[in-house]
Design brief:
Largest sheet: 6 strands, antiparallel
Structural class: alpha+beta
CATH topology: Heat Shock Protein 90
Shape: globular
Helix content: 25-40%
CATH superfamily: Histidine kinase-like ATPase, C-terminal domain
Number of helices: 3
CATH architecture: 2-Layer Sandwich
CATH class: Alpha Beta
Number of strands: 6
Oligomer: single chain
Distance between the termini: 36 Å
Length: 161
């Protein structure tokens, strides 16, 4: 019996529990594929940073789409913000700066990250690999199967660390 690859789509707004909903979604997919706790924490933190960057300063009705999916060896989170990309440029003392650490954190925490301006808005895609000895997940049938295309966003070139 084959199973569809686990995926999830969330539409989040600038509301108090948006980041908690995102982290619950990552946990759900990580549970299904056996992503270790340390890797799960890293992915949740990186995804929270991407979502926070998309929502900071936005109105309460501003929507951000989050797509999460798994394949045979990784968990992927994509944050799509239909607003403009406003990179934070840090001036002054780094230790006293309130912002500007999100992108460096994302780069340090995940195995692959991609930032792309598209016709839809700004997309941040992050991927955390499942260690080879843990691949196969917890889905009945013994695998986090390769995606069938349903619920997945098309892939493009990523920046790996």
């Amino acid at each position: 019996m084959t199973h569809a690859a686990p995926s999830l789509h969330l539409t989040l707004r600038n509301e108090p529990f948006a980041t908690a909903a995102l982290r619950r979604g990552v946990d759900r997919l990580a549970d299904e594929c056996g992503l270790p706790q340390e890797a799960r924490f890293d992915l949740k933190l990186a995804a929270t940073e991407a979502l926070t960057n998309a929502l900071v300063g936005a109105s309460a009705d501003h929507e951000v789409d989050v797509f999460m999916a798994t394949d045979d060896d990784s968990v992927e989170v994509e944050v799509l913000d239909r607003g403009g990309f406003r990179p934070y440029v840090r001036n002054g003392h780094v230790l006293e700066a309130e912002g500007g650490r999100g992108i460096p954190l994302m780069l340090a925490l995940v195995d692959e990250v991609e930032f792309r301006a598209t016709g839809e808005g700004t997309r941040v895609r992050m991927r955390k690999h499942i260690p080879p000895d843990l691949q196969g997940g917890l889905i009945p049938g013994g695998a986090c199967p390769a995606p069938t295309g349903a619920g997945r966003r098309p892939r493009s070139t990523s920046t790996s660390r």
